[in-house]
Amino acid sequence: MADLSFYISPLSEEIREEGRVQGRLQGRAESILLLLGARGIDVPDATREKITACGDLEQLRQWLRAAAHVTSAEGIFREETYASG
Questions:
Q1: Element containing residue 20 per DSSP (H, E)
Q2: What span, in angstroms and rounded, lies between the C-alpha atoms of 16 and 76?
Q3: What angle do CA 50, 52, 56 make, to 5 degrees?
Q4: I want to staple 66 with a disulfide (CB 3.0 to 4.6 A). Which of 11, 22, 27, 81 is the partner?
Q5: Backbone phi, then psi, for 10, in 5-degree steps?
Q6: What is the DSSP letter of 3?
Q7: Measured between alpha carbons, how far is 42 from 37 in angstroms, rounded to an integer?
Q8: Would you list the DSSP string of 24-82?
Q9: Which residue has the higher pLDDT, 84 or 31?
């Protein structure tokens, strides 16, 4: 019988948690880009890269909120667009 102890080890759980975090980061970045696209806002490559490279869930949440209100993709990076609410 195969040794399956790795799958219940702390290291295995750490790897799974890292995967969950990466999935949330990717999902939130995709949501921002989808919302901007649905609003007809063009997203330059540099802006798309900054969004998808972000590793901070809170920052992405703020950008997602801002994406509902801005008139340009770069507008999500202006603090005043998401500071309230």
A1: helix 10-38
A2: 31
A3: 85
A4: 81
A5: -60, -40
A6: -
A7: 7
A8: HHHHHHHHHHHHHHHTT----HHHHHHHHH---HHHHHHHHHHHTT-SSGGGGGSGGGT
A9: 31
User: What are the φ and ψ backbone dihedral angles of 24, each rounded to 5 degrees?
Assistant: -65, -40
The label of the residue with tokens 């309230």 reads 84
Asked if 66 and 75 touch (Cβ cutoff 8 Å), the reply is yes
Tokens of 1: 């019988």
Q: What is the pLDDT of residues 36-62, one digit of tens each?
A: 999 999 999 999 999 999 999 999 999
Closest CA to 74 of 46, 39, 34: 46
Closest CA to 44 of 75, 83, 78: 75
* This prediction's pTM: 0.78
In 3D space, the residue among 24, 36, 42 whose CA is nearest the CA of residue 68 turns out to be 36
Length of the chain: 85
